[in-house]
Amino acid sequence: MQSKSRKNMATVNVYQRYFEAEMLFNGLKRKGVNVLLVSCSENGNIKYTAEIAFFPHSDSEDFAVSYDAHFIKTLFEGKGRRSKKKEKEFLAQLFSVAENLAEENGGKIFFDKPLSEERTA
Question: Average pLDDT over the chain, rounded to whole?
Answer without folding.
Answer: 90
